[in-house]
Write a structure and sequence with these properties.
Spore Coat Polysaccharide Biosynthesis Protein SpsA, Chain A; two-stranded antiparallel ribbon; 13 strands; 27% strand
Length: 216
């Protein structure tokens, strides 16, 4: 699932008329980089959630045949459901097996095929060194386990492998993902791995300019 429903307030005025996932990075829309990475990892079906200017995303990507996959769309209406609510709304389309989640506003060279769940875990997160705009990080990582105590602090990359059980007890509506991850931490059901390659949260005009520079 690619999360693509956000408004992109910090990227205005660009996002006043273009949804953030369709902003161009190195010659192609940001979301196409994700679709190519999913295809390389062997994914053949993807869900994309839609809210702000969602019709543009649907029109641009179509049914996914260009990437050798089938794209399903999860409509959220005029107000996006946040990360937790957006994923929960899409669960019927995602099915009962583990599924990948990729934030539509990150740019990375992470190989999605390298994500694997430990038995009994509810999620496996990709964590990256803290960027300048987020120096305190999100979680600690120690021996492959994500926690909030001792250990080096890292930032959640917006990429993870999840199981539907993480969302047990949730109801349809707008809610964040973080409380569910903390519940998994408390139950020792949250794994993680570190990525030291390319990664950027394309959340501002300056960071968009940075990742749009030619590689090399």
């Amino acid at each position: 699932m690619i999360l693509a429903a956000g408004r992109g307030e910090r990227l205005r005025p660009l996002t006043d008329t273009t949804p953030k996932p369709l902003l161009t990075v190195r010659g192609k829309p940001l979301i196409e980089w994700h679709l190519e990475a999913l295809a390389r990892a062997g994914v053949r079906e993807a869900v994309i959630n839609l809210s702000w200017l969602g019709a543009q995303i649907r029109a641009a990507l179509g049914d996914g045949a260009r990437w050798g996959m089938r794209i399903h769309y999860s409509e959220e209406g005029a107000v996006a459901l946040e990360t937790g609510g957006g994923i929960f709304r899409a669960l019927p389309r995602l099915g009962p097996e583990p599924f990948l989640i990729v934030n539509g506003d990150v740019f990375t060279d992470f190989d999605l095929a390298q994500l694997h769940l430990r038995e009994g875990d509810h999620a496996q997160l990709v964590l990256v060194p803290n960027p300048p705009q987020h120096p305190a990080g999100d979680f600690a990582l120690e021996a492959g386990r994500v926690g909030e105590g001792a250990g080096e602090r890292l930032t959640y990359a917006g990429i993870g492998l999840y199981v539907p059980a993480l969302f047990a007890g949730c109801v349809d509506g707008r809610f964040p993902l973080l409380p569910l991850l903390r519940r998994a931490i408390a139950g020792r059901r949250l794994g993680g791995q570190r990525h030291d390659g390319q990664w950027s949260d394309v959340g501002t005009l300056e960071r968009l300019r940075q990742v749009d520079r030619p590689a090399g």
